[in-house]
Records
---
Amino acid sequence: MKYMLLIQAGAVDADGGAEGCDVTDWQAYDRAVNDAGIVVSSESLADLVTATTVRVAADGERTVTDGPFAESRELLGGFYVIDVPDLDAALEWAARCPGARGSGAVTVRPVADFGG
Amino acid sequence: MDGEEAGYRMAARSSVEAVFREEHGRLLASLVHRFGDLDLAEDAASAALEAALVHWPVRGVPSSPGGWLLTTARRKAVDRLRRDRTHAARLAVLQAERERDAAPAPRTAGELPDERLELFFTCAHPALPAEARGALTLRCLAGLTTPEVARAYLIPTATMAQRIVRAKQKIRRARVPFRVPAVDELPGRLPGVLNVLYSIFTEGYTASSGPSLQRPALAEEAIRLARILHRLLPTERETAGLLALMLLVHARRDARTGPGGALVLLADQDRTRWDRELIAEGTALTTSALTGGSPGPYGVQAAIAALHDEAPDSGGTDWAQIVALYGVLLTLTGSPVVALNRAVAVSMRDGPAAGLALLDGLAGEPALRGHHPLHTARAELLHCLGRAPEAAAAYRRAIELAGTEPERAHLLRRLADLEAEPPGE
């Protein structure tokens, strides 16, 4: 079963990295999760100042805005899609993720299965 | 005679239902273990009940009712899978994965398998909403119907049904597993299961709202479930501690309410009405919960309950020991409610002024802001100290916050007592 681990960065330090964990923590986690052979895909997202939002109104009018500059706890920093037997296994990988520490959090969402 | 036959049918039906209720948890757990799907397991279990209602009144109750129900239910489940190929294919994948991942369960020869432990952990899974865990546990493991669970929690059946359906959908769609956590995960997961059983018990012991103070049937279901869990995990000391605590508190049920369902405080209870058998059983379990390692929170709470149960009256209670045990519990839990209980015990040991000083130190705790026992305790201690206006204000605040009618009635009586006393003393 596929699960997406959405990494919600908490407070961000001056370099835009997640607070309380350094690059080596992330490298070690990334190696472990890849070595386990469960990664379907994964990306780390660029800094939020680079984000742009698009909305299309009912009349088709397009609005493009800079941002969003969301509340820090809703700031999506990256994701992993992993394929593991059940929710407990997914939660275990989420708990090991450096992004779950400090003021950060990892949200685990099953990927919808339309029976294909 | 029609009436006679109808009566006979009804008697047969209620005996089948009694057996079924006893066997339900075990049956459902076996089916879930075999098929990995809660809905399919529930359908098969109720189909087996229907079959029992047809066959048992005619052929008699089989020698192993549980075995008969399991065999019948398995056949019903397989029939359904034959009819529903897509469902079957999905389950086959699940099954293969389970068999690949799971070590075979040890079996005692001649005994039906008991997979209920898996179901306890699934129903209490932290990924499920807290308010659904107790309901799901009562339904799956205690064999209560959804209307019965709804009545137990005093909420409309439709609301409860929706809560249960949503929880089951999450189990299925997010694939919450049916498995017993590994030994190294157990310390993280068992407290969640114990907490579900304890919250069922406390809801039965002090209903959080409603016309009556106690709902003993719910407390008894919680005890029944705790007994099952204790049998399944005999070496877990906190499971013994939880069961002990429930028995030691439940032993006082008949003395806790007076005429018309009025609340009777521990100090004023007729202790001859306490259930000595439950106290003896609870005390023995407390000893085993506190032996062989550092104590857990349920074991310590059971020890406190045992000290109350053994005391001849409030004055003859070992308050010094109770203060010490609340101190241990406070270290274990850090809970402001425990600090409140400790303060009350200190007032019994050292007098009301000492207790009040501790209570006033807790007034700023956010967790206690809407907690009526804090205001009740302050009111009683201020009352003792002759500070009538402050006591009256505290009683009024407690009355606003109390959840059940008998609690409110008790506080109104205490306020009336206070106001009837001559001023200035």
---
Amino acid sequence: MEKPKVATTSLAGCFGCHMSLLDIDDRILKLIELVDFDKSPVDDIKKFTGRCAVGIVEGGCCNEENVHVLQDFRKNCDILISCGDCAIDGGIPAMRNNIPLKECFDEAYHDGPTVYNPENITPNDKELPLILNKVYPCHHVVKMDYHLPGCPPSADTLWEALVALLTNKPVDLPYELIKYD
Amino acid sequence: MSEKLFQIIKKACESCGNDRARLMDIVIAVQKNCGAVTIDAMELIAKQVKVQRVDVESVVSFYSFLSKEEKGKIVIRICNDVVDLMKGADNIAKAFSETLGIKVGQTSADGTISLEYTPCIGLSDQAPAILVNEVAITNLSVDKAKSISKALLSGASPESLTKEFGDGNNSDELVRSMVKNNIVKKGSVIFVERVAEAGLKKAITLKPEDVISIIKSSKLRGRGGAGFPTGMKWEFTRAAKGNKKYVVCNADEGEPGTFKDRVLLTEKFDMLCEGMAIGGYCIGSDSGIIYLRGEYSYLKAFLENKLSKRKKASLLGKSICGKNGFNFDIRIQIGAGAYICGEETALISSCEGLRGDPKTRPPFPAQKGYLASPTTVNNVETFCSVARIIEKDAAWYSVIGTKGSTGTKILSVSGDCSKPGIYEYDFGVKVSDMLKDAGAKDTKAVLIGGPSGQLIGKKDFGRIICYDDLATGGSIVIFNSSRNILEIVKSYLEFFVEESCGYCTPCRTGNVLLLNKIEEILEGKGEPSDIKYLEDLCSTVKVTSRCGLGQTSPNPVTSSIRNFREVYEAVLKTNEDGRQPTFDIKASLEVAEALQGRKSVIY
């Protein structure tokens, strides 16, 4: 039987959740027995090659490309997981949500104390995706099936959740894995 | 601070014996005389009754009839309950707003008139209705609203707005109100000709335990809605340890669409006092409190006069009816516009001069209630029923109604029907029969028990009103086929959002989330999984809220999903592009497109 596929992506995140995924250590060998990785930074596949059972999404949506990728994930994955606090709540990037975009740009490219920008340029190449008015959690943009909290969720949390989903068992995370205080 | 304010506050505090438990009466008196309870006033009140200023402020900020900022000398409160909105309250508000030149929520520049919305004021049978200070004006029209505004602008007093008096005691010189009783159907327990005080006189010839056992075998259950057996409650309170015990009457009917207590207070007040005195006799209490909702302040003088008449007639006070050692007196505690105070522990908090926050149960009031003493809290209708039960007997009473729900139930019927008003039915009446009696046509939905009850559709009209089938505290609101179910649900959620005391998160936040989702659905931005979302959220709010408000506030949502699922399904649709219907990509890119001077190539 063909192995189910897993895709992962990092949107407006720090790749910390992906690092945490790598923390499953040697269990990655077991994971490879269970699944094939499709589009993911793990294997550097850029485009979906087929239908995926699970999509793991790190980070929220801060620009139009994030929205585009997330829509692509929704289209190609049976189950989507918001992985980590940025995907679930917007996280650190969402701290800009109460500040007008113009002020964010000015601070980042012109007025900030560490800015060196002698030509006073605001980056505006047409290749650069446009920034959204605010950072959105993933489930505000498309329907998400599961939320896996944590900054990042621990390797054990990710492992337990993935194995449960892939073996068709209910996701039943022990309290220790989702307790953060 | 002015000398005048100083005197007002001093007098208000002294008339309550500088008792911190009477803080409600003090701040209400100050509000009434000064139009506000300012920070300065709070300081002084705090000093007088020996509490911190923040204790006073927490009370003033809690109740909607009290305010820190000065309100107009005349406050017009437009009832925006669902029934009033159905009868055109929006247009009434617009007419007031235009004629007075202020928006709802504002006070006129010269400080004379304030205009506000208020939830159900217990006049759904004569909606649209408003309160002008304490004066109730009913059956309003746009023209009447305009002429009232003009009269008030030219200096007319609120009292002068009442041209004709209502029936019965509404025309008593101490009431002088245009409110009508609208008693449509009389039953055999309460709206019946009977020998006055027969229950009380019989009770005192029996031992208190025997009176309780009569009530127990009558199987009387609480008429506020929860249906707890009254006899058992009194037995617990009697058995509880404590030198001082209290009998409290819950006359804070705030459930939207209910107004039966208004009519009972107006016409059957002696029967209520009789029932309370019997309660005092049973549990061994010499003090009763009637918690009267602020909206019914127009009845206060009348009721207090009745109390003093009863004292003169030896029906209250010392040695009642000549029975040595049986002392019982009643005071009226007025509320100040808070729905939550209908919840018994919140009501007790309010009587104690605190914010109307519910208390954690257990201990139940029967063990530890008013001022930590054993207290029984019963509904107006329950006390009236007790008087009749003792007068007749348990056997007579227990054959009325159904097996599990004995006696009669007074229903407040309003909404889309030709005969709104008070109906006293034997328990077990079919919804369809009630609709017929009320002259309801083309009925699409009936709200049984107000928004914290359930919204039922045609398939359930054959069901009966009783504790075991459709339980209700008495509110019945009828909707015909022209009404939008989702709009109704939205209005009731707005009510709960407003009335949540804010103490616990599931209720404070959960109701807002429910309202947001219903609004999204109404805007056409709902998608099929929203039903599951709503159901999950409703169950969280119900299970995790501390008091009855949050435990029932999701009911308009759950019962409308259960009985009108098609209404939801008709407007929920999956977005073709996979995005959430509530997410507008174009709008979210507008700022960046303007800043960067280019258009998105993706969207």
